[in-house]
């Protein structure tokens, strides 16, 4: 199993992987266009046959906040540590960028808690995150849970929250 930055050639496999779970309403569907545009945010897990078996994207919001999106692992490999490895790679990338906090909105709460994330009230997150939510068919009755992992005590999500309050919606 190899964890590496995604390449444009991985986009169709990423699309199919996400679609598998989006069809079951476990995550948000992504178009091929969205995947290509954000391909540099993606990390993939590739098996020995060079098949993409996992993906995740790290989207930077502000100087101290990024979001984990599009996390999916091929069903036949669930429970073998692939998801954790993808999160670890994103956490390392966030640390490299000097971003202190990484959050996610998910139904897979237990998994993220096992990987060091803690639940927070969605209201603690910056308003800017709702730019994407309002385009989701499940809005506003979505039951996704917000979780966050923060490096160090001095940089809580509320710091990012305060900064992002200055950014108008739609920016
Ligand atoms: C959520 C998902 C990415 C987890 O990937 P995975 O490769 O199966 O997870 P891992 O094997 O790395 O598990 C890491 C830890 O989390 C635990 N875990 C995994 N899924 C869990 C769950 N649903 N509930 C509680 N704990 C879970 C594992 O037992 C493991 O714990 P351990 O290291 O203490 O033994 C995978 O189930 C998936 O693709 N689900 C469908 C898409 C989805 O829900 N994406 C979430 C973001 S929208």
Automatic annotation (TrEMBL):
Query: Which PROSITE patterns is this protein grouped with?
Result: GNAT
Please list the residue ranges annotated as the N-acetyltransferase domain: 1-143
Superkingdom to which the source organism belongs: Bacteria
Q: What class of enzyme is it?
A: transferase
Q: Which InterPro entries match?
A: Acyl_CoA_acyltransferase, GNAT_dom, NH2A_AcTrfase
Q: Which GO terms describe its cellular component?
A: cytoplasm
What are the alphabetically sorted keywords of the record?
Acyltransferase, Transferase
Report the EC code(s) recorded for this entry.
Answer: 2.3.1.1
Name one molecular function that GO assigns to this entry: L-glutamate N-acetyltransferase activity
Example GO biological process: L-arginine biosynthetic process
Per its record, how is this protein called by name? Amino-acid acetyltransferase
Organism, by scientific name, is: Aquisphaera giovannonii
Chain's gene name? argA
């Amino acid at each position: 199993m190899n964890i590496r930055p995604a390449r444009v050639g991985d986009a169709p496999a990423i699309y199919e992987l996400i679609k598998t779970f989006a069809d079951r309403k476990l995550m948000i569907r992504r178009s091929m266009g969205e995947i290509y545009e954000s391909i540099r945010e993606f990390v993939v897990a590739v098996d020995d046959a060079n098949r993409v078996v996992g993906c995740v994207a790290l989207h930077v919001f502000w100087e101290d906040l990024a979001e984990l999106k599009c996390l999916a692992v091929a069903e036949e490999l669930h429970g073998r540590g692939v998801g954790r490895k993808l999160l670890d790679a994103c956490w390392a990338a966030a640390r490299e960028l000097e971003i202190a906090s990484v959050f996610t909105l998910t139904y897979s709460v237990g998994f993220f808690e096992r990987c060091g994330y803690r639940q927070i009230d969605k209201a603690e997150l910056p308003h800017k995150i709702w730019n994407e939510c309002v385009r989701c068919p499940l809005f506003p009755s979505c039951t996704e849970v917000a979780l966050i992992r923060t490096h160090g005590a001095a940089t809580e999500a509320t710091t990012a929250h305060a900064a992002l309050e200055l950014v108008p919606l739609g920016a």
